Amino acid sequence: MNHGPRVLLFTGDGKGKTTAALGLAFRAGGHGLRSCVIQFIKGDSSVGEIAAAAVCGHIELIQCGRGFLPKPEEPQFAEHRAAAQAGWQQAREILASGRYALVVLDEACLAVARGLLTEQQVASGIAEAAPDTCVVLTGRGATPGLIAVADTVTEMVCRKHGLQAGIAAQKGIEW
After folding, report:
1. Cα-Cα end-to-end distance for the chain
2. Angle subtended at Cα 92 by Cα 89 and Cα 96, rounded to the nearest 5 degrees
3. pTM of the predicted model, to two decimals?
4. What is the pLDDT of residues 135-156, one digit of tens each?
5. Which of 44, 46, 75, 167 matches a 20 to 30 Å C-alpha distance to 66?
6. Residue 6, exposed/middle/buried by CB under 10 A (0-12, 13-18, 19+)?
7. Is 102 within 8 Å of 24 (Cβ atoms)?
8. Phi, psi of 8 (to 5 degrees)
9. DSSP string, 56-106
């Protein structure tokens, strides 16, 4: 029996949103299911998930981001918005294709919150996803509309973070 897309959302100011989504992709791969992870903010090809996805073989990872987001009034912001919009066109095709059991829209919540994508774009793309696809949205600042679309919402809350104590980002942990 076919069902509409299942939608999980990981948001909040705590660490672990992308990590949780990648864990789902890894779990799906263990069952022989294909996943696609589309990263809307990250643009650094040295992050560990790219190498891990290549080794796994069941995970395709696409980076369409340009990295750290400038303020909207800065000239570079338009480049980030254009990159996110181009990535969104690719994401819509992937969501509707039925080629993947799991599609992770990494940092889509932040992309909406910061004005790179619209809530309506993301909600419409999810509504058009192939039946039985699981869609995972990650990122800080999930909007009420994205939360409403989700079946499961988890908020990561930062109680304490090593970066606040001056501990540098660690290879394999933060990147």
Report:
1. 39
2. 150
3. 0.94
4. 999 999 999 999 999 999 999 9
5. 167
6. middle
7. yes
8. -115, 145
9. HSSEEEEE---SSPPPTTSTTHHHHHHHHHHHHHHHHHHHHH---SEEEEE
